[in-house]
Amino acid sequence: MSTMLDAPPTARTLAPRITVEPRQPVWRSAGNDEPAIEVRDFSFWYGDVQALQGVSFTVPRRAVTALIGPSGCGKSTFLRSVNRMNDLIPETRASGDLIVEGTSVYGSGIDLVAHRQRVGMVFQRPNPFPKSIFDNVAYGPVLNALCAKRDLPELVEQCLRRAALWDEVSDRLDEPATGLSGGQQQRLCIARALGNRPTVLLMDEPCSALDPIATQKIEELIFELKREYTIVIVTHNMQQAARVSDTTGFFDRGGVLVELGETHQIFTNPRQERTEAYITGRFG
Amino acid sequence: MNRRTVRRVKSNVMVGIMMAAVIVAVLPLLFILASLLLRGASSLSLAFFTHLPAPAGESGGGVLHAIVGTLIIVGMASLAGIPIGAGAGVYCAEYPGSRLSLVTRFVSDVMNGTPSIVVGVFAWTIIVAPQHHYSALAGSAALAILMIPMVMRTTEELLKLVPNSLREAALALGYARWRTTLSVMLRTALPGIVTGTLLAIARIAGETAPLLFTALGNQYLSFRPNAPMAALPLVVFTYSIGPYEEWHRFAWAAALVLILVVLVLSIAARFATRQRFGATRD
Fold first, then answer.
1. Domain of B54: which CATH number?
2. pTM recorded for the entire structure
3. Residue B77, in any domain of the structure
């Protein structure tokens, strides 16, 4: 716990009780039935290669939306567009509309730093910072001045509890995060994302580097978290999509959204032949 | 002989060859250390560290002026060289594809291979000749020029070793780019950068040729950067070619002190690398 904890106090840090409830969306006039993410004719290019071809769909609030499809179908590209992580790759461009909680992500007026605080992300491989467990969770809230220093321990505890990790690490918060197992590291990364009080959580194949037991824990956690967060998860594992999600979208090669609907319907009674071929294992 | 015996003999022979190579590689270093200790240690005394040289022909005295001089010259060189080198390294690591960083990388590779005497002549031409006098400052400038490419490449290489997933993690948490670079990338690479920097300091501390053209040397204790100043490598150089037996002993002792300084810096570098939290593996 070094100097990074000395964040200047702001109006927000003076709030009486510490909380990790997701923030209320800035744009709330439409109420909770309005979708959390709205995608209209969204396309994406890596140089000359088009990775997404005019996809349009909506992501319901406080529910889990799973995106499935073969490798290279653009589902990760879409996920990384929502918080604009693709900006790291040179010569990419986007067209169409991608609106998260009323903010146009590729609009000119967006504050990327603020946007990424509201949209948390969990990556394919656990990527904790080479710091202590405590610092990993405290990192976001401190730098984004969401919390006073004296409230940090409580905030960290709440985040770790939400990520179902508290009982396993409560007696060794000062130990390096890299000493945790892969599954624990991934839950720590989820706790770290929760520390920013996001409204949307993006998960890019969060279990692909984990064993079945760790996977089960993460899935239970996703099920818990969806009561408060809008979750979009990309997965190669169709059973996982069927288990955890409320809505499933099927992307196919070339970056086309073939079908999106209620998970039960997609897996039992798909409307499109390509969807059926994929989920029954005839290709992919 | 069956095949297993053949295999074992082959293995032993290869291990033997490699051990011989290790011994040959280390032997000169051990010889240098041993002869320095044998010939230099006897001249080491408290006076050697705390006194100025005695007039020629007399015995006693010390090399305080050279120790102070080396500290000042190397200190000033580090003050200029480390920030410039580290800053350039960060730029090259953060903008690897830009034309400026390509040119910088190429130039620094050439600089790393440039003989230090060339740098000394360069500093003489640029600083000493126009000023019409030698100075410690010119020596520091020469050493800084030698140091910058070393620090730069170390910084760049170590920043490149930091996994990109950490950068993504920080950006996804809502970090500005500069903050990501400073508090995640640099912070993670810091122990290695410190090691590389200490090794660079150790290397320039032993440089003689550039100082011959710039700091020149001084028989007295001097704190003025804009005047000639003594330094340990210069003392070794001057005394070892001098006519007096006493001087030769002093040269050995000064060389031993120089090696000890380098040794201490290297050990410090070792300690700096023992970081508490290792970086993630992938």
1. 1.10.3720.10
2. 0.81
3. yes
